[in-house]
Design a protein that fits this description.
The protein is an alpha+beta fold. The protein folds into 2 domains: 1-30; 31-134. 14% of the residues lie in helices and 35% in strands. It has one helix spanning 2-21, and strands at residues 37-43, 54-59, 65-66, 78-83, 95-103, 106-116, 124-128, 132-134. A 5-stranded antiparallel beta sheet has the order 3-2-5-6-7, with no helix packed on it. The protein has a 3-stranded mixed beta sheet with strand order 4-1-8, with no helix packed on it. The chain is elongated and about 50 Å long. The N and C termini lie far apart (68 Å).
């Protein structure tokens, strides 16, 4: 009897967890608690991590300047490009996010393509974009 009660309780708990993560009214979506962030490494002309850069992030389709929720990165030269907090700023087919990093007259322009993961729109997805760039060099 205890075994059946435990299985029933386990089934109820799993059902409650699934329901708690569901993002749609018809129950077809189950989102994880993961919060995705997308970064880029920016190097200076000596191939060292570029520090204290100013980044401007613009959704090319809407013209809106976007700021990710958390800008502090622990790795020198690594900068936050976007995160799940911006999911409503991107369409499910994908939008270009133009990122311009600058410091003391030197700059680099990077294009990233992000989309919201349809149909559930749980997370932002990176479709295209560089991992590492060098400030002051023209884009490829």
């Amino acid at each position: 009897m205890h075994r059946i009660a435990r299985l029933t309780l386990l089934s109820l708990l799993l059902g409650a967890l699934f329901w708690a993560c569901s993002d749609s009214t018809d129950g077809t979506c189950a989102c994880t608690e993961e919060f995705r962030t997308f970064t880029v490494t920016i190097l200076d002309d000596a191939s060292q991590p570029a520090q204290n850069l100013t980044l401007v992030r613009t959704n090319v389709r809407t013209g809106k300047v976007l700021e990710p929720g958390w800008l502090g990165m622990l790795v020198p030269g690594t900068y936050l490009v976007a995160d799940d907090g911006l999911i409503d700023e991107f369409s499910d087919v994908g939008d270009t996010l133009r990122v311009v990093a600058s410091q003391n007259g030197a700059s680099v322009t990077m294009d990233f393509v992000f989309r919201s993961a349809a149909p559930c729109r749980c997370h932002l997805e990176l479709v295209a974009g560089p991992d590492t760039v060098v400030i002051g060099e023209p884009p490829p």
